[in-house]
């Protein structure tokens, strides 16, 4: 069974750094792209970017380029989303999602990580 | 990449059919047969209901069907049930020479009367 298990909720202050994780299991982690999706409170889904763990090829949505860093450690089947300096506007639920091959479909979703940024 | 346009809300009585539209552009919905639909219940992660426009993943009820015409995709839920009450999002692949990613719809709240 394919599973994407994300790290737990975080409460941070503006200006702090943060790295959240997404651990894949039940499939070949290096063979599937992993994407990240933001959902701000009461709002819709937004595509942030995607990484291919096999070679760490990473593509960002223009809206998120320079705002976050996506990475992966294939030795532990884990993808990451990180911020160097959080803002209150980063408060949101963040989902990782596995893209399935030729369908180019964001198929399997993690349970989400709630990030709250407040002074 | 602008969000795909969906109606804010759609409602129906149990047993009825409803259709949710998803309008994009020739750069996303119109260019690819790669529209997917997601169901999201409150406090839960999105769940894939339709992919490649009309295909259902294993385990998804055949009451859910998808189609596309031009720049508009549609999701139809037939035999509406109380458990179908949720938010629904469409999503289209929107790859180009400068963008490798997706655009989501604005979301539709489905209410079962």
Based on the model shown, name its key terms.
heterodimer; A: 119 residues; mainly beta; seven-stranded mixed sheet; four-stranded antiparallel sheet; 0% helix; B: 113 residues; six-stranded mixed sheet; 42% strand; elongated
Brief account:
Chain A is mostly beta strands and 119 residues long.
What does this protein look like?
The complex is a heterodimer of chains A (119) and B (113). By secondary structure, chain A is mainly beta. Chain A is globular and about 40 Å long. Helices cover 0% and strands 53% of the residues of chain A. Chain B has 113 residues and is mainly beta. In chain B, the strands form two sheets. In chain B, strands 1, 3, 4, 7, 8 and 9 form a six-stranded mixed β-sheet that branches. In chain B, strands 2-6-5 form a three-stranded antiparallel β-sheet, with no helix packed on it. In chain B, a hairpin with an 8-residue loop joins strand 7 and strand 8 (102-104). Chain B is elongated, with a radius of gyration of 13 Å. The termini of chain B are far apart. At the A-B interface, strand 5 and strand 10 of A face strand 7 and strand 8 of B.
């Amino acid at each position: 069974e394919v599973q994407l298990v994300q790290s737990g909720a975080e409460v941070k202050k503006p200006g702090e750094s943060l790295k959240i994780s997404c651990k894949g299991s039940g499939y070949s982690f290096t063979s599937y792209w992993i994407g990240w999706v933001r959902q701000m409170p009461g709002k819709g889904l937004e595509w942030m970017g995607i990484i291919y763990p096999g070679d760490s090829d990473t593509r960002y949505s223009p809206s998120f380029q320079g705002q976050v860093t996506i990475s992966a450690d294939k030795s532990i089947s884990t993808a990451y989303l990180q911020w160097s300096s959080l803002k209150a506007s980063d408060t949101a639920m963040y989902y990782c999602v596995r893209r399935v091959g030729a369908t180019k479909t964001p198929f399997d979703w993690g349970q989400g990580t709630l990030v709250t940024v407040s002074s | 990449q602008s969000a795909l346009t969906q109606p804010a809300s759609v409602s129906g009585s149990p047993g009825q059919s409803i259709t949710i539209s998803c309008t994009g552009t020739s750069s996303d919905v119109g260019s690819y047969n790669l529209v997917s639909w997601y169901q999201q219940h409150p406090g839960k992660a999105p769940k894939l209901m339709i992919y490649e426009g009309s295909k259902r993943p294993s385990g998804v009820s055949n009451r859910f069907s998808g189609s596309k015409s031009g720049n508009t995709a549609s999701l139809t839920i037939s035999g509406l049930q109380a458990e179908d009450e949720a938010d629904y999002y469409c999503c289209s692949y929107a790859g180009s020479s400068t963008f490798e990613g997706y655009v989501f719809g604005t979301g539709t709240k489905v209410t079962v009367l």
